[in-house]
Amino acid sequence: MPVILSDIFGDPNVGIFSFANDKIAILPAGISHKKISSFHDTLGVEPCSVGIAESRLVGIYVTGNSNAVLVPYITTKDELKQLRSTGTHIEIIREKRTALGNIILCNDNGAIVDPRLKHNTIRELEETLVVPVRPSTIGGLPHVGALATASNKGVLVNPIITDNESRTISDVLGVPVSKGTINSGVPYPKAGLVVNSRGAIVGSHTLGSELITLSNAFQTD
Hints:
- This protein is of the alpha/beta class.
- Helix content is 29%, strand content 22%.
- The longest helix is centred in the N-terminal third of the chain and has 11 residues, at 33-43.
- The chain starts with a strand and ends with a helix.
């Protein structure tokens, strides 16, 4: 499983600008063909270059697993058309909190979500992602998607997580949970990491010690 250091538009916060699961990578509009190729080769999936809500901040707005990719209701018709042309199941979530990538942490086994989400939204997520969904926090904070990154092999999470929260996430997502930082001490793994079961792309400022933790968390070679 390859792990590479990278950036997007010269910014090491690759997770803010992009999303990946085991079937697709979604990258911002305007990204270079060379960068698209590097994501393809590392993650082993076909990338789609598109804006979300006319923004390049794809990773903030998008989340999902192999069963569905979730996008906010502010995604434009043209963007939806382009995403659906890939054959991926795209589901619009009509939730006032549009930064879905920051409030939902999921893989193919389960999902942890912001406890402020409505019951109807949680039920919709269970039906769409086809996994159990459980509200929880990380370090008492509700932005679980921003404070961690998950794959079908592991989770890398902000070091402020409590033991009880770690057990909850591990139970629901069915994988081990590891504490760690990226990009030279940034405690928000989501911001600087894109990962699936085949590979990982991490911000170019990430230290060797952080790479070791990441490799252990996601069981890379």
